[in-house]
Hints:
The protein has 299 residues and is an all-alpha fold. It has helices spanning 10-20, 33-42, 48-61, 65-69, 73-80, 87-103, 111-115, 122-133, 142-153, 164-172, 178-194, 213-216, 236-249, 256-262, 273-283; strands at 288-289, 295-296. Among the domains are: 10-133, Hypothetical protein, domain 2 (Endonuclease III, domain 1, Orthogonal Bundle), CATH 1.10.340.30; 236-287, no CATH class. The chain is 52% helix and 1% strand. Helix 2 (33-42) packs across helix 3 (48-61), helix 2 runs antiparallel to helix 8 (122-133) and helix 5 packs across helix 6. The radius of gyration is 22 Å and the shape is globular.
Amino acid sequence: MPPMPAHPLHAPVLAWYAVHQRDLPWRRDDRTPWGVLVSEVMAQQTPIARVLPAWEAWMRRWPTPAALAADAPGEAIRMWDRLGYPRRALRLHEAAAALVERHGGEVPAEEADLRALPGVGSYTAAAVAAFAFGRRTCVVDTNVRRVLARTVTGTEYPAPALTAAESALAAALVPDDAATAATWAVASMELGALVCTARAPRCGDCPVLDRCAWQAAGAPAHDGPPRRGQSYAGTDRFVRGLVLAVLRAASGPVPHDDLVAQVPDDALRDPLQRDRCLGSLVADGLVDVLDDGSLTLPG
């Protein structure tokens, strides 16, 4: 089968990326597949500015899957600090143990093997295959979805969840050459992160402004489901974070009453929230309850 012709978006986006890409350690020539995997897990729903120092500290302490697997899962949660969604730390620890057990401590290149790891879904598997191993695959995150929604389909925002049509469109745009495909994946992501942003896109700096279907249509406002943000303070996520912050700072188990005293009533939206959040942390494996009722990170 002859190669597909290049899409009109490819050349300008790739040229823009060559000049404007951020210098991130997991993109450098000396990157490791493990470093790429850690970066992808950390960057889920988390700004890169917060990920970078956390990634550097993590890689200094655990430069290989074996190093992390040999440590206690509670230490992974402690190192996660305030990145949010701390189950990711637990899944990374589980993934490290699986890599040691199944793959001799190495991150595999095949997407099927990657998807079989704890906490690794289709996006992360594709991203690691592309960015760590240069494989030709379809990498679609929120930034890519927004870029394609605007430039190709002419809508301000994509659907709330990834649709079959979006997946087919993204797959159709993957260049035939594996190396170019991997660069296209990160370049389109970078364009969405730096220029084609969710709020206040910098359209004047866009390398494909003259080819953008959304701009050609007059930049029509979003007419889909309302995009509402939620205040973080007072949510269960917020209270869970307060509980974990107490346990991270402790040198040993924390008595239940001491923990309650450090998560004050004025941080709660309802009287049962603290106990509900503590129970969910225990259920998620992020907190252990000892025989005397005291609480600790998992050992």
